[in-house]
Amino acid sequence: MKRIFLVIAIAVGLISCTNNKQQSAHNHDHSTHQHSESCSHNHDHDHNHDHDHDHQHSESCSHDHNHNHDHSSHNHDHSGHNHDAHNHGHNHGDDAITFSVEQQNKIDFEVVEVVTEPLYQIIRTSAQVVPSQDSEKILTATTSGIINFENKDIVKGLDVKAGQILFSIDNSNMADDNLSTRREEIEAEYQKTKSNYERKQALAEDKIISESELTDAETEYLKAKKHYENMNQNFPNGKTLHRASITGSISEILVPNNSFVEAGQPIMTLAQNDRLYVRADLQSKYYPVLKNIKTANIKTLNDGQVYSLEDLSGRLLSYGKTTDINNPLIPVTFEIKNNGIIIPGSFVEMFITAESDNMGIMLPNSAIVEEMGIYCVFVQTCVDSFEKRIITKGVTDGQHTQILKGIDAGDRVVSKGAVNVKLAQGSAALDPHAGHVH
Asked: Average per-residue pLDDT in the chain?
């Protein structure tokens, strides 16, 4: 009997042990999920068993996990069941590009929100930069003769100061209007009026002549003296000295040195270049738009830099109101401040913008990246995750471009650092393990 009771006790113990093992097998170890900020995941756990899930999420990161655990279909043979259901990785899609916050902080990086805004009608054309009228002076010959530049440094582009002697004209060997003869005549007149004034001063002291006679003599003397001093200053040794009338630079030399010039002939042009004109010639079809001109952007051809009219303290000066058969184009002139980079006489590309009633999306040109003729932008989907979007471009004003298709209002687009995000895309493609996994 003792042996029978012992066998029964052992059997009961084995059955109890098996049930405990089966029950403990349902205590699943659900790993804690820690997700980065601003990622969007949603945890929907549909379990037939009551599991105590410990999900720890950052404040602004909502995760969407769809777990449908139907344990009724399980075979409940838990001896070989590895139930690590929550130990899974969350990625942002096969096309996601990872560009970490640390990488963003190392460069000039910026993301802008896409908005729908008023569009401008943009006229893209070429224009020429010329000196403004009030900043340009032409020096002409005041007498006929042989021109002599002051020194060998009188060349185009030379900076000059007002009053600086630039050239002289020698007509001492000329038969007509000989300065040497003219100088002798002026000097003789000066000496004559001086002697006459001094003589009448003595007579006036003795009351021999009236005060009016003395005054007339003094007037003649002072006039002759002024002519004589002017001759000595500006026409020494039979030469006519010509000085710079403004402080600026020599923009053009019209005659060679040591050549004969006529009185009134232009010799050289001086320009201050503080204010410049930018003139474009437009087709007559744009005439109805010109009254709505808002501003303009100027792109230099040498370095491709784009300047707004506001950057150059500029303004619309005028536009033509008529055309003719010989010149059917309409001139449009803007005045700008010379920033030292835009060269007078050069050609630039101009984007003239006029108001319109259309609405659309404009992005900075720095946001657009070209890949083998295809244009794209990078949309931020998570704080460190981005998606490439192929776009269709519209018109451009040199700084911004209209986007016709590919993005919508509310999207967040990389406006600075887009090339770096593109490079990160290439790096991820080379590394099979690269990706954004939580």
From this structure: 78
Q: Which two tokens stand for residue 32?
A: 């804690």
Q: How far apart are CA 95 and CA 390, in angstroms?
A: 13
Distances in Å between the Cα of 260 and the Cα atoms of 141, 240, 267, 269 are: 10, 13, 11, 18
pLDDT score for 178: 59
**429 vs 88, which has greater pLDDT?**
429
Average pLDDT estimate for 390-415 = 95
Categorize the per-residue pLDDT at 254 as very low, low, confident or very high, splitting at 50, 70 and 90: very high
Mean pLDDT of 208-213: 87
Pairwise CA distance, residues 372 & 260, whole Å: 62
CA atoms within 13 A on the CB side of 307: 19
Q: Cα–Cα distance between 217 and 298 in angstroms, integer? A: 65
Higher pLDDT, 376 or 14: 376
Rg (CA), the chain: 45
Question: Can you tell me the distance from the alpha carbon of 350 to that of 367, in angstroms, rounded to the nearest whole number?
Answer: 21
pTM: 0.55
What pLDDT does 68 receive?
41
CA dihedral 419, 424, 428, 430 (to 10 degrees): 70
| 171 has a pLDDT exceeding 70 | yes
Closest residue by Cα to residue 321 from 364, 287, 372: 287
Go through the domains of the chain in sequence order and give each one's CATH number.
Answer: 2-80 (no CATH), 97-116+361-430 (2.40.420.20), 121-132+273-357 (2.40.30.170), 136-271 (2.40.50.100)
- Cα–Cα distance measured from residue 56 to residue 238, given in angstroms and rounded to the nearest whole number: 100
Find the DSSP H helices in 206-293: 211-234, 287-290
For residues 102 and 77, which has the higher predicted lDDT (pLDDT)? 102
Q: How many Å apart are CA 154 and CA 333, to the nearest integer? A: 32
How do strand 40-47 and strand 62-69 relate by DSSP bridges?
Answer: parallel
Coil vs helix vs strand at 321: coil
Residues with Cβ within 8 Å of 20's Cβ and at least 6 positions away in sequence, in order, are: none
Give the residue carrying structure tokens 């020599």: 250
Whole-angstrom distance, CA of residue 218 vs CA of residue 198: 9
> What pLDDT was estimated at residue 142?
85
